[in-house]
Amino acid sequence: MSSPLRREDVAHVARLARLTLSDAELDMFTEQLGQVLEHANDMASLDLEGVVATAHPFGLINVVRDDVVRPSLERDVVLAMAPDSQDHRFAVPRIMGESP
Amino acid sequence: MTLRNGWEMVVGLEVHTELKTATKMFCGCANSFGSEPNTSVCPVCLGLPGSLPVLNERAIELAMAIGMALHSTIAPSTFHRKNYFYPDMPKDFQISQYDLPINLGGYLDLPDGSRVSIERAHLEEDTGKSTHLGGSGRIHGADRSLVDYNRSGVPLVEIVSGPDIRSSAQARAYVVELRGILIATGASDGRMEEGSLRIDANVSVRQADAPFGTRCEIKNLNSLRSLQRAIDYEAARQVDLIEEGGTVRQETRHWDENVGATSTMRTKEEAEDYRYFREPDLVDLAPDQSWQDRVRAQLPPMPAERRSTLRARISEPVPTVLDAVEVVIDLGLDPFVHAALDRGVEPALALARAANELAGDLDGTSRLAAAAFCDTLLMEQRGELSATQAKTVLAELLARGGDPRDIAALMGYEQLSSDSLGSTVAGLIEEFPDEWTRYRDGDEKLAQFFIGQVMKVTKGQANGKAVVAELRARR
């Protein structure tokens, strides 16, 4: 059994997701996410010896498409969705770190 | 470069190569370098809500071909989401293979006889391209960033070597050999200057046979020169640090080509937590034996095999010729050389023209028929064209294609037919009877005198070897 979810775990995950949570929200989500994890932990009590791991509900594999070009979107349509644009590119606030 | 005081460097490389597919990894947008910004984008590669990715069959086959060339096992594999916030990835995650890559294990043998193990070669998608405005041009301090998503979703294979490399020269040789394989499989054009290959280097140092030291990862080395310099710099930095009583921190470092130094980008403590999880919109990839066999059947010979095939046809393996072999194999020009050898062109000439003239205009080789290359070299070998003229004819063939005889005629090179060379030599023999007698009596130095005279008369358009042949024939 894994240890119950701690408040700082929730704060860490929220930070990774760039979410700002109030103290009340942190308490609430620690409680709620803890219940989700507890439910997942129920699996550990089952006898799964010999059960093949399932990663997808469908038995499909190797779903592919041919390498054939299809029309892209019109650039004007694309850039109209951007908060701002310059030189036919999406303009975003200055980037603080480097790309991972 | 050798490190001082018994220190040894330990290097592993991660090579990212863009795949030469017609379309992107998960959508039908064209995979084209250098198009107008944001003209090759759609809901899938822009990460718009409701869009669904579908795997590109060709990308999978190219990834398998790379794996087969590296003696990897083609394994059942899955795709994950690597989550991070950065504007070059509009979905806020990158789809990448994670714990189950398509290619597992393998090795690459280098021309010097050393072997570098391969840990994995997996599929992932490329990111968009950011341009940073304002500030110094470095990312820190830029006022605004502009993003072009044409590259977002272009298929990539990342090839991860084992920590088996022990010098920057070996690292370079590994990348060159790997590049040859990527070109041979058709996976990549191998153009580092266009970003087709991007390399991260993991560098640590240790005393011989000691356990591995703490490593630093140098990101985004985009040329062979940067690769070698960055590795040498980083290994020396770590030795200095340790010998001064410090310890190496595990961190990601940035190489500045202008300064010639690496600097900290982020430390292990700041390392991102990517929260990998299975990409729910994609099913597993498990190429069966018949699919693998089809891909394997189409694999062309790899550089190592082509190198030995070509070397076997060279009777005089002098260093300049062997260097030319390396260039020719590296750039995939050996079919031209084999065609020329089949037609009776001297190996040294065929290799020199391929390694210099053809290598100088790789794009042009698509316009150059092998027969035209052979004809030009035979004309040069027979003395109908001087070396300079042959190079000019080749340059024209590479630029516009055509028939070498027509080009030579258009450029007025026809006067160099063996008939006219013969009459020129005959005229000079009459003009310089004393020199001719001395030459006929065995003074080989006089051959140079006659070559000089022929060049003067023909304004440099004659072929020295052909002149000597003509002189010998008359002796």
Mean pLDDT of chain A: 87
Mean pLDDT figure of chain B: 91
Tell me, what's the shape of chain B?
Answer: elongated
- SS element count, helices of chain B: 15
User: Largest interface by residue count?
Assistant: A-B, 40 and 67 residues
Portion in beta strands of chain A: 5-15%
Seen as an oligomer or otherwise, the chain set is heterodimer
Distance, first to last CA of chain B: 55 Å
Structural shape of chain A: flat
| Low-pLDDT windows of residues of chain B | none
User: Could you tell me the radius of gyration of chain A in angstroms?
Assistant: 22 Å
Helix content of chain A: 25-40%
Q: Structural class of the helix and strand makeup of chain A? A: alpha+beta
Report on the biggest sheet of chain A: 2 strands, antiparallel
Beta fraction of chain B? 15-25%
How are strands sequenced across the largest beta sheet of chain A? Answer: 2-3
Query: Helices and strands of chain B: which structural class?
Result: alpha+beta
Order of helices and strands of chain A: HHEHEE
CATH architecture call of one domain in chain A: Orthogonal Bundle
**Total strands of chain A:** 3
The biggest beta sheet of chain B is recorded as:
10 strands, mixed
Question: Explain this structure to me?
Answer:
The complex is a heterodimer of chains A (100) and B (475). With 100 residues, chain A is α+β, with helices and mostly antiparallel strands. Chain A starts with 6 loop residues before the first helix and ends in a 7-residue tail after the last strand. Chain A has helices spanning 7-16, 23-41, 75-80; strands at residues 64-65, 85-86, 89-93. In chain A, 35% of the residues lie in helices and 9% in strands. Chain A contains 3 helices and 3 strands; from the N terminus they run ααβαββ. In chain A, helix 1 crosses helix 2. Chain B has a domain at 7-295. Chain B has 15 helices and 16 strands. The model of chain B has no long low-confidence stretch (mean pLDDT 91). At the A-B interface, helix 1, strand 1, helix 3 and strand 3 of A face strand 2, helix 1, strand 9 and strand 10 of B. Strand 1 (64-65) of chain A pairs parallel with strand 2 (55-56) of chain B, so a sheet runs across the interface.
